[in-house]
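Field reference: sequence -> structure
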Amino acid sequence: MDDTSAEWRGSVERRLAALEKDVAIILSNYATREDLARLESKLIRWFFATATALALAAFTAGKYLP
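Structure field:
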């Protein structure tokens, strides 16, 4: 009974260690509020830059096309 109990305990400990490692990896990959704020800022700047470039292209095309 002690051998099977020791095997079982060792198996549980190995599986628990693997689970703890997996959870640590998952937690390290979460996005923080700062990450989301930086991304939002970049997206807003990209949107306005793209909108400005497209508006400039449209006005330029309208000026030179009949």
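Note: The radius of gyration is 28 Å.
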